[in-house]
Amino acid sequence: MNIAIIPARAGSKRLKNKNLKLINGKPLIYYAIKTAIKSKLFDEVIISTDSLKILNKAEKFGAKNNGLRPKKLSDNLSLLPDVVKYEIQKHKKKKFIQNVCCILPTNLYNNQKLLTLGLKKLYNNRDGYIFCATKTSTSVFRCFTKNKNQEIKMIFPKMFNKGSHLLKDTYFDFGNFYWAKKNTWLNKKIFFSKNSKFIEISSKYYSDINTLEDFKIAKTIFKKTN
Fold this sequence. Notes:
Elements: E1 2-7, E2 22-23, E3 26-27, H1 28-39, E4 44-48, H2 52-60, E5 64-65, H3 80-90, E6 99-103, H4 112-123, E7 130-135, E8 144-146, E9 152-154, E10 171-181, H5 182-186, E11 197-200, H6 212-225
Parallel strand pairs: 1-4, 1-6, 4-5, 7-11
Antiparallel strand pairs: 2-3, 6-10, 7-10, 8-9
């Protein structure tokens, strides 16, 4: 049994009610649910939320009601593995669940091809996660931080004097979905470990919606890809 879990809490400090923001007349959660159902990879598509409004809308779009998520798993400090573990543990048919895909509604670049490729990769990967990632335009080995006094501190000082051609390519999490075996989620294993694999995607499709500016970028990407 494969299930999809779509986390969509009500609170958001930087962009209020972002999971219900409309794109082309539909809320963000609609596109995550629609993509999951259309893929035909899942026996159930479950919405994970602390909001009755989101829950009711999600049910109308075809998602399953697994009950409201507790407030302690719905604040700004809540971790994704904890949320997914909670939803698995409370599922009435949890013993039949094999694979779980957490699909984030705040990234609109998802499709049947990507989800299917992720599941295929998972068949050969028992202990890690399968997710999407994109290459950074500049190697993070050259990055630095600054303190309140504007003092600069290199993150990787030993790499500063190396030629750019000697620096390894670096990547960041695309943030659209995470496939894993049920027990991987239940054991809350680390996302970015030697056991995980990723699908590389062009950065031009990247949109992680947290602010109004992010939302505007996502709308532009949506128009180009739909």
